[in-house]
Amino acid sequence: MKLILLGPPGAGKGTQAKMLVERFGVPQISTGDILRVAVKEGTPMGLKAKSCMDSGALVPDDVVVGIVEERLQKDDCASGFILDGFPRTVPQADALTKTLAVMSKDLDAVISLEVDIEALVARLAGRRTCKACGAGYHLEYEPPAKPGVCDTCGGKLIQRDDDQEETIRNRMAVYLDQTLPLVEYYGKSGLLSKVDGMLPIEDVRRAILDALQVAE
Ligand code: ADP
Ligand code: ADP
Ligand code: ZN
């Protein structure tokens, strides 16, 4: 399965990507996760990316395109991948099209998670992530059994630096300006399916599998 998940910040891309990883046994490629690791490790790329990420702006196209090109070459992508948070601009989408053509790979589908932008502020403000294993939670919609503690590994749950209201608003503006045009871009390719991302998490998962025409 070779899939792109499109949608604004907080649409549920990461949450659904993790479920699709289980279902299809292919890796999740999240440029946000890869960039956050680079920032934490203080690599030259991380140092370059940090100020963009902190303000809610996009990291330059050449940086993220480089990350994805390198990641797609790894053996675990042989039978597919779930792209989460990439592409985010038309030049990134063009670069991906070229890279996949060179690798003789075709995308199977692009899923656009359709959500109400106003609801996303609440989603992102309540988002928590396990510091140890990266599992995602929500204070209200997907709470851990014990507050502040990961159900899976017992790790500490933290809030992302960029999930503050002002930064969230910037990220939404960036999404509308730079990423939303991709819905039309992939609409033209005939690969696009729109899925209602306002449904409960489990229902969104089912709607994605329906759109892909695969069984549970
Ligand atoms: P969310 O899932 O909330 O939209 P991500 O984890 O995907 O957030 O991204 C966090 C930040 O990392 C973005 O605000 C941006 O600064 C940077 N980033 C992630 N993916 C890309 C990308 N494809 N192009 C440019 N910047 C990116
Ligand atoms: P994205 O990767 O698109 O930025 P996430 O998957 O991280 O979004 O989801 C953002 C937050 O919203 C998380 O805290 C997650 O638990 C929660 N969430 C995800 N999908 C839903 C949903 N369908 N309904 C309610 N909350 C959701
Ligand atoms: Zn954990």
Task: Briefly characterize the structure.
The chain has 216 residues and is of the alpha/beta class. The protein has nine helices and eight strands.
Q: How is the biggest beta sheet arranged?
A: 5 strands, parallel
Per CATH, which architecture?
3-Layer(aba) Sandwich
The amount of beta strand, in percent, is 5-15%
Order of helices and strands: EHEHHHEHEHEEEHHEH
Reading off the top of the CATH hierarchy, the class is best stated as Alpha Beta
| Domain count | 1
- Which value, in Å, is the CA radius of gyration? 17 Å
The CATH homologous superfamily name equals: P-loop containing nucleotide triphosphate hydrolases
What is bound: which ligands?
adenosine-5'-diphosphate, zinc ion
Strand order of the largest sheet: 2-3-1-4-8
State the helicity in percent bands. Answer: 40-55%
3D shape: globular
Kindly state the number of beta strands: 8
Mean pLDDT: 96
N-to-C CA distance: 14 Å
Describe the protein in words.
With 216 residues, this protein is an alpha/beta fold. It has one domain: Rossmann fold. Helices cover 49% and strands 15% of the residues. It contains 9 helices and 8 strands. It has helices at residues 13-24, 31-41, 44-55, 61-72, 90-102, 117-125, 165-179, 181-189, 201-212, and strands at 2-6, 28-30, 81-84, 109-114, 127-130, 136-138, 157-158, 192-196. The strands form 2 sheets. A 5-stranded parallel beta sheet has the order 2-3-1-4-8, with helices on both faces. A hairpin with a 5-residue loop joins strand 5 and strand 6 (136-138). Helix 2 (31-41) packs across helix 3 and helix 6 packs across helix 7. The longest helix has 15 residues, at 165-179. The mean pLDDT is 96. It binds adenosine-5'-diphosphate (2 copies) and zinc ion. Zinc ion binds at residues 130, 132-133, 135, 150, 152-153, 155.
